[in-house]
Amino acid sequence: MQSLQSYKIMDEKELKKRIADIRARYKNRLLILAHCYQQDEIVECADFVGDSYALAMQASKNRDAELIVFCGVKFMAEAAAILAGNNRKVFMPDLDAGCPLADCADIDQVEAAWNTLKKLDISKDVVPITYMNSSAELKAFCGKNGGIVCTSSNAKAAMNWSLSQKQKLFFFPDENLGRNTARAGNINVSDIVLWDPLKNHGGCGEKDLANARVILWKGFCHVHTFFTVDHIKSAREKYPECLIAVHPECNEDVVMLSDANGSTSFLKKYVEDAPSGKTIIIGTEINMAHRLGKENPDKNVLPLARSLCPNMFKTSISDLCYVLDNFPVDNEISVPQYIADDA
User: Fold this and answer.
1) Residue 292 maps to which CATH number?
2) Any domain includes 342
3) Are 258 and 266 contacting, i.e. CB atoms less than 8 angstroms apart?
4) Average pLDDT, the chain
5) Total tally of structural domains belonging to the chain
6) Are 212 and 168 in contact (CB under 8 A)?
7) Contact at 8 Å (CB) between 134 and 75?
8) What is the rounded CA–CA span in Å between residue 226 and residue 214?
9) Is 144 helix (H, G, I), strand (E, B) or coil?
10) Residue 291 DSSP symbol
11) Domain range for residue 79?
């Protein structure tokens, strides 16, 4: 087996040739998945490009694929491994590609919070919801406790379902997605409390928890909280006729000042459906924003600001080629069966 370092010094043309040869050799036994936030050199090598849920579903549907290489961050590869099942292997080119948002809700902190709600005799009235952008352990926790996993596309439906089942919901790990979704569902601000895992009782009073309909976990995506109201105002001053669409992981004030908000899949379709010649400002990760411009040359697609996901950026074409050439055990992603069953 060649060392990873030997791939780091290969030129891009050689790496691409090797990857093409490997794909031709394995055919449908190999599946390469790339998230929308990956660099262009990775996207060009992928069989499918999409958001985390869409890619996990591809891992589930493509039953001929014995080997799946996921170019994204860890929670995404875990989801693909869960849906792929036991007889197929999932690999990540760079194991250091984590997700700070997912890390905001450590399973020990979540279980401690749930135990607090139990002691207050509140947990029995609560449905836990975790966003797709979370660890397999947190997804399993929600499964074990009668909860649900949602995406940014169906978060509103997940909240509606939860509140039809019980009096309250506990939303992990993204405060902004939870808050923006609750507002879109006409839930009063007075019915929402924020749980800070670093504070006693989450920084919430017992009465506040008893009266709340929605408990939001204090977590955030630094890629999307980078965008500000000033960015929106500046864009509108420069392009008065523009449309602005942002991801719902953005701060609430940014979302409220935009023309539309939605998942990465929504943003892609929003640009595609816009009239030719229109200026569209996109508030999401810079690689995706730039790619939308390339894919829609009849429109003026611009980023709201330059916000790069450094963890997505960690995956290089050298890393991808190394994994495809060797399928090293160290790069394999597996989820214990007892966690996968509940997740």
Assistant:
1) 3.40.50.10800
2) no
3) no
4) 96
5) 3
6) yes
7) yes
8) 25
9) helix
10) H
11) 4-97+314-337
162 and 245 in a single domain? The answer is: no
pLDDT range class, residue 2, cuts 50, 70, 90: confident
Handedness of CA 331, 96, 171, 116 (dihedral sign): positive
Of 195, 214, 248, 217, the closest CA to residue 127 belongs to 214
DSSP H or E segment with residue 35: strand 30-35
Q: What is the pLDDT of residues 96-132, one digit of tens each?
A: 999 999 999 999 999 999 999 999 999 999 999 999 9
d(CA 65, CA 57): 13
Cα 26–chain centre separation: 29
Tokens read off for 69: 């290489």
Assess whether pLDDT exceeds 80 at residue 1.
no
- Say yes or no: 173 and 124 in one domain: yes
Verify that 108 and 182 share a domain, yes or no: yes
Inter-residue contact 214 to 167 (CB < 8 Å):
no
Instruction: Find where tokens 């808050």 sit.
Output: 179
Structure tokens at 285: 């990760």
Please, which residues bridge with residue 260 across strands? 245
- Over its C-alpha atoms, the chain yields an Rg (Å, rounded) of 21
Q: Which residues fall within 8 angstroms of residue 278, CB to CB, at 6 or more apart?
A: 241, 242, 243, 299, 300
Q: What are phi and psi of 135, to 5 degrees?
A: -70, 160
CA nearest to 255, candidates 168, 150, 159, 152: 152
Q: How confident is the model at residue 85 (pLDDT cuts 50, 70, 90)?
A: confident
Contacts of 250 (CB under 8 A, 6+ apart): 176, 180, 224, 225, 227, 258, 261, 283
Q: Supply the CATH number for residue 213's domain.
A: 3.40.50
pLDDT value, residue 239: 98
**In this structure, what are the phi and psi dihedrals at residue 171, rounded to the nearest 5 degrees?**
-105, 125
Question: For residue 172, what are the β-bridge partners?
Answer: 130
- Do the bridges between strand 214-217 and strand 148-150 make them parallel or antiparallel, or are there none, so unpaired? unpaired
Are both 331 and 298 inside the same structural domain? no
Shortest CA distance to 225 belongs to which of 314, 104, 113? Answer: 104
On whether both 161 and 252 belong to a single domain, the answer is no
Q: Rounded to an integer, what distance in angstroms lies between the CA atom of residue 88 and that of residue 24?
A: 19
Tokens of 8: 């780091």
